[in-house]
Structures are given as structure tokens and as C-alpha cells.
Design goal:
Blueprint (H helix, E strand, L loop, with lengths): L8 H7 L7 H7 L5 H13 L3 E5 L7 E5 L1 H4 L2 H12 L12 H11 L2 H4 L4 E7 L2 E8 L2 E6 L9 E5 L3 H8 L4 H4 L2 E4 L1 H8 L11
Parallel strand pairs: 3-6
Antiparallel strand pairs: 1-2, 3-4, 4-5, 6-7
Helix pairs in contact: 5-6
Protein name: Winged helix-turn-helix transcriptional regulator
Pfam family, one: HxlR
Keywords: DNA-binding, Transcription, Transcription regulation
Length: about 200
């Protein structure tokens, strides 16, 4: 906790979990985080070896922040914290969720025993953020989408994260909550059935 326990540190780390991010991208996803605090946290995380600063090759030629291998190893810790948090009776699923946080939640809330031999690829659009996922050999991997990605078996899109939460976890009909789905309807239902929130703890 001495390394990652300061306010904002874990949300900042979370936003880099799927790949490098620009300073402005991180700040835009975390309302209430000042530029000064973000600078301080990034410097602290860099000094401890959790974050590194890179430069993108031309034509971008901009600085980005990325997690080191040690930083990426925090994902199982954050998954356990996520499972713990949603078990609270005070958990409010209607609160805003960033696109990266949504994708990480899907990696957290998939139920391995339900996967079986199911294998597929999926695209996720959350507002302007785009991701590509592959379910294979019992594991769900998710990364930012690339221009040369193959056409996925399923494609999901919504303007924000809540429609995903309502459909994947709340099991509301996708069309009723604003989640558009392209691809085989039966395959989509099989895929969405893999996800479930843990039961609530008694108050």
C-alpha cells in the first residue's frame, strides 16, 4: 500500500492496464483528477518501477505512459478488489465506468467453468473507444482494436458502459438497454451468459 495506496494511484494504473496512454487520455477518463496530481502520481509510480514513460514512433512522436511487466502483474490484485467491491450492498452499478475499466471488469467477471470449448472473437465499441477480444482455450484476452484486425464473430456497441453492464451482468435484453449486437444471435447469448457478478455479502 505504500507503493500504490495514494489516492488516484489505482485508477491511474487501471487506465494503463490494456496499453500505453497519453497524459491527456488518462486525465480525461478520470474526472476530478487535476493535472498536478496526475503528474505527481505518474512520477511516483515511475520512480517505483510500476510505470515507464515511452515515446511513440513518428508520425505520432508523443510521450505515453505504460505499465512495466511488474505493473501489469497488478491485474489479479485489481480483479480481486473488483470482485470484493461488487459484493457490497452499497455497490451502485449505475455510476459511470470508463471503457478500460469496463473491459477489465469483463475479464474479471467471466465465469471460467461456463466457458467449456467455446471460442470466438468479439469487437467492443464503447463511445469512441474500440477493443478487440479473443476467447480461446478458456481465457478471454482484450486489447485496443487495430486497423488490421480481422472481422470479429460478434460486434457490440454502445455510447457508454452502462448498456454493457445492464446486458452482460443484469441480463436485461440488449435492445432494451441500448446495446447493439452484430453477429449470430445464439452465439451472442452464449457469450453473454459467461458473465456473472458474485453474490452480495450480508449487511
Amino acid at each position: 500500500m505504500e507503493l500504490i495506496g495514494e489516492r488516484w494511484s489505482l485508477p491511474i494504473i487501471r487506465e494503463m492496464m490494456l496499453g500505453p496512454r497519453r497524459f491527456g487520455e488518462i486525465r480525461a477518463e478520470l474526472p476530478g483528477l487535476s493535472a498536478k496530481t496526475l503528474t505527481e502520481r505518474l512520477e511516483s509510480l515511475e520512480s517505483t518501477g510500476i510505470v515507464r514513460r515511452d515515446s511513440l514512433p513518428p508520425p505520432a512522436s508523443v510521450h505515453v505512459y505504460a505499465l512495466t511487466d511488474w505493473g501489469l502483474a497488478l491485474e489479479p490484485v485489481m480483479q480481486e478488489l473488483g470482485r470484493w467491491a461488487v459484493r457490497s450492498t452499497l455497490h451502485d452499478p449505475s455510476l459511470p465506468i470508463t471503457p478500460v475499466s469496463l473491459m477489465l471488469s469483463m475479464r474479471t467477471m467471466i465465469v471460467p467453468d461456463r466457458i467449456g470449448e467455446l471460442a470466438l472473437t468479439a469487437g467492443f465499441d464503447v463511445g469512441r473507444a474500440r477493443f478487440f477480444a479473443r476467447l480461446a482455450e478458456g481465457e478471454l484476452t482484450i486489447r485496443p482494436a487495430r486497423e488490421n484486425d480481422p472481422a470479429p464473430d460478434l460486434h457490440f456497441s454502445a455510447e457508454a458502459g452502462f448498456p454493457y453492464l445492464a446486458a452482460f451482468y443484469g441480463k436485461f435484453p440488449a435492445a432494451d438497454v441500448g446495446l447493439a449486437i452484430e453477429g449470430d444471435a445464439e452465439l451472442a447469448q452464449r457469450f453473454m451468459a459467461l458473465f456473472s457478478l458474485p453474490p452480495k455479502c450480508a449487511p
